[in-house]
Amino acid sequence: MGRLIAERKLAAIARRRARAAVGETASRLKDEVAKQVAQIDDDRAYAVRPTFQIPPNWKCTHLNAPTEFYKVVACVNERFVSVYDGATEYELGRWYQTKRGSTWPPLDQCFFAFSAPLGALEAAFPRGSKAKHAPRVLLKIEAVGNAYECHETKRKGMASKWTGKVAVTRFRVSRIMTDAFRESALDTLRFGQNDLLSEPRGTQVGAAA
Fold it and tell me: Which residue in 27, 93, 117, 136 is deepest, having the highest Cβ count within 10 Å?
């Protein structure tokens, strides 16, 4: 009798383990299907990238997972705003999306950032930037989705190299990196004709780095 009770208990345990295993397998399969569907959507979006609509030194890319970049903004009346337009406001933890273009918006509608803090801190801003005289703050951001990378070629015939500068279509502010610092004296040197060519023209939404 005792043996029979023990066998029943073992059978009950085996059934519970089997149900748990089935549940875990089903959950894993659902996750894999969701990832595959998302990948198909991403591949479809990347396939229609507008390589003919962007400057030759910019290349299309896609950020499958949240990727960290750095962005300098202005501090105006205790608000973080775009150095370029002085109006686009950035808040910690909030997600931002380009306002024009469903998959590959125009370059001048994207948000500019850099792969390293130093690149963002040394970045030049276009002549006429609205908040270029305001104190500045370095932000860490997380970007996903379609993006553009700025490349340079040092010698003709050589492969291009990514400069670390990106134009992202969707991001959130994840961290405030530094206290506000005022404009550098080098800005006067940077606001030249070369800087006008380095930034896209037109109406920009948080376009400055």
Answer: 136
